Amino acid sequence: MATLEPRVIEVPIDNSNDVLEIDCSQLPEHAAEICDILENEGSALRFYQLFALEYYKQGHVEEAVVALKRGMANAKANDQTAKVPLLNLLASIYVQKAKSATVTAAPSDRDIMLKMATALLTEAERIDRTEPNTHLVG
Fold first, then answer.
1. By C-alpha distance, which of 75, 53, 77, 76 is closest to 64?
2. How large a percentage of the chain has pLDDT more than 70?
3. In contact, 27 and 34? CB cutoff 8 Å
4. pTM exceeding 0.90
5. b/e string for 19-43 if b means 16 or more Cβ within 10 A?
């Protein structure tokens, strides 16, 4: 079995040619710490998505949700299309949570997650109808 190389994400430092290297094997326990760094550096929304994916891969689903929500809150009003990948990823997480809720939680929890996913995908489609990753599968 092959071992994975430690993943490092380079975050550009605002008004500089330097980068901040963040080792994903040593992410802070709370995504808010990473989000604070991204906000302070004026980072692009794709960095919120990258870190959300890392938290998700490591089993920290709620921290992935935090990172995505903070990223969406930082979307610039004149560039809402940059928010679409975050909306799609968050919707995917809610669908996964709904699937697991069918086993471990009440049906109402499942319905809530599916409604949240639907609302996110609807917003993503409203922003950019041409994005191929925005779709509901019946």
1. 53
2. 88
3. yes
4. no
5. eeebebeebeeebeebbebbeebeb
